[in-house]
Amino acid sequence: MLSVHRPLILQRMTPVDTSERTLSITVNGTPRTAPAGATLAELLYALELDPRLIVVEHNGVILRDRASFATLALQSDDVLELVHFVGGG
Amino acid sequence: MSSLATVALDLPLTIAGRDFQSRLIVGTGKYATNDLMVRAIEASGAEVVTVAVRRVDLDRKNAGILHDLDPARFFLLANTAGCYTATDAVRYARLARAAGFNEWIKLEVIADEATLLPDPIATVEATHTLTAEGFRVMAYTNDDLITALRLEDAGAVAVMPLASPIGSGLGLLNPFAIRTIKHRLTVPVIVDAGVGTASDACVAMEQGIDGLLMNTGIAAARDPVRMAVAMRAAVEAGRLAYLAGRMPRREVAVPSSPVTGMVGESWT
Q: pTM of the predicted model, to two decimals?
């Protein structure tokens, strides 16, 4: 299992970014890139998100087991929804 | 602050076998700051607080509500606010459950943007689906008896008819409809939405409903913390007045003091 503390460069995808060493993914409706082989846990770490406070929907499937974040390897074209609780009535 | 209604005067609010000491449920939206929100909720005495499910804001690093609201102190009731179809509402409910706090959901399926009135058909459909998946569904609905009965049949653990449209502050527009729903349902009836001030809350509770849910009525007050205290007192006052049983209305005056023994009366 990869450490979630491994530094990771993560940025919004640019039109020129076609490197084979990066993944093109969509996070909350926005195209982004991640290094090939990155796990979901690493992505969340790079986004400075506490996994305990968010819920992840991965390609339409809600991940109810947070332990799976560390082993889920991201693939190109993955679509992620990261949600949390906000104020509401 | 001690509660006016002690256990001796009222029973707890029981929903799906779970007891709550407060009959007031409050929302967490529309506050100027999270600090103000937390202080208002504490002042309200509410145990159940509603929250919404939204995308994490990745650019602004906007912290979720759980950074300020301690989930160990409050029972988090996630809502499906903003959903316009049963499918969307079910998706939001599943996302909320995956947060890992409980299996309860405040189901809202809105039909109309201008009035925010609920879609009764989609709400019944989603109640069926979610109940089958093990959710405890508290269903927001119109003040229509038949829809309320359908929601109960579909498995809702509480039915939550509106007092008036969400955020309108118009108070209880149809006390008759709310009383009718309360009389006919077995599950708790919690009036949700439309309460603007303390008297609205009191009048709603006087109809015999089991509880009251509000957000804007507190959050949009000039002083939300004071209004939270007022709403807490009003919910308890209305509840106790209902339990006490009001005097009959009369179209004529009846003196409270003795009509005999007046000074200067002559003996006859």
A: 0.88
Q: Which residues pair with B189 in a beta bridge?
A: B159
Nearest CA in chain B to A48: B61
Q: Is the ipTM of this complex over 0.95?
A: no
Q: What is the DSSP string of A23-88?
A: EEEEETTEEEEEETT-BHHHHHHHTT--GGG-EEEETTEE---GGGGGT-B--TT-EEEEEEEEE-
pLDDT in tens, A1-24: 344 444 455 555 555 555 568 999
| Inter-chain touch A55–B96, beta carbons under 8 Å | yes
- A65, amino acid identity: D
- B92-113 tens-digit pLDDT: 999 999 999 999 999 999 999 9
Q: How far apart are CA A10 and CA B127, in angstroms?
A: 40
Give dist(CA A69, CA A51) in Å, integer: 8
Question: Which of A40, A49, A84 is the best mutation test for B, with the most CBs of B within 10 A?
Answer: A84
Q: Residues in chain A, how many?
A: 89
